[in-house]
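Appendix B: a complete holo record

For completeness, this appendix reproduces one full record from the ligand-bound portion of the collection. The bound molecule is coenzyme A. The inputs are the chain sequence and the ligand SMILES; the output is the full three-dimensional arrangement of the complex, encoded as structure tokens. No fields have been trimmed.
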Amino acid sequence: MKYTIHNFHEIAPELLPKLAEIHMGDHGLLSELGYPFVERYFEIVYKNKQVVAVYAQNDETGELIGYNIAAPEPAALTGQLTSDRAWFIKQIIKAAFTRPLAIVQLVVSSLTIRTQMQNEADAIESLYLTINPNYRGMGMGGTLQRGLFEAVRAAGYKRIVGSVEISNQASLKMCLSNGFTITKTFREGKYTRHRIEKIL
Ligand SMILES: CC(C)(COP(=O)(O)OP(=O)(O)OC[C@H]1O[C@@H](n2cnc3c(N)ncnc32)[C@H](O)[C@@H]1OP(=O)(O)O)[C@@H](O)C(=O)NCCC(=O)NCCS
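The structure of the chain with coenzyme A bound, as generated:
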């Protein structure tokens, strides 16, 4: 298979919903909140120039393979979900009825993430890495992660940090193979996560 790793900011905007669909297979908090939040989040990421992100596309079929997104201030991205107040309140009310546990987790995670990124001036946080289920187990996760390392190095960062759920064996193996080390293990509501970092 031939593929190319691209700069996320250069993606054709009409492909953003397709990336959002891939993200729905992530089983994390954002996807638990529902597709409207995911779609809006990807629009925010696309426009935010502090974000360093890559995506991979199959050269032959055009199919999207996956993406890896990093940002120096993760809370600023989720904070922008509230910038259209009317939209946000409507979605939160809907989710409070249909996905109440996700709303509780949202509050816990926002508070936890804020405390994780203190004194990290030279670091960027890897936020989301998801591979299209059709392409999992083929080494694309590791490849895309190395593509992100190149991009964040070029942007001047010295370290990359992140969090991985301790039960996510595929992600943990991938991160350790790519040179991340575990710095601590912590609770984030219902999740138990390893904090990981790599010197670039
Ligand atoms: C985690 C994820 C990105 C890995 O991508 P991938 O392309 O399938 O993974 P790779 O083929 O690069 O394999 C990475 C490593 O995990 C191993 N692995 C792959 N699938 C696995 C599985 N289901 N269980 C255990 N190990 C697995 C591989 O053998 C490889 O190990 P190695 O580096 O020692 O050879 C992908 O499974 C995914 O998108 N999952 C859903 C979203 C997610 O969990 N994202 C990570 C959040 S931190």
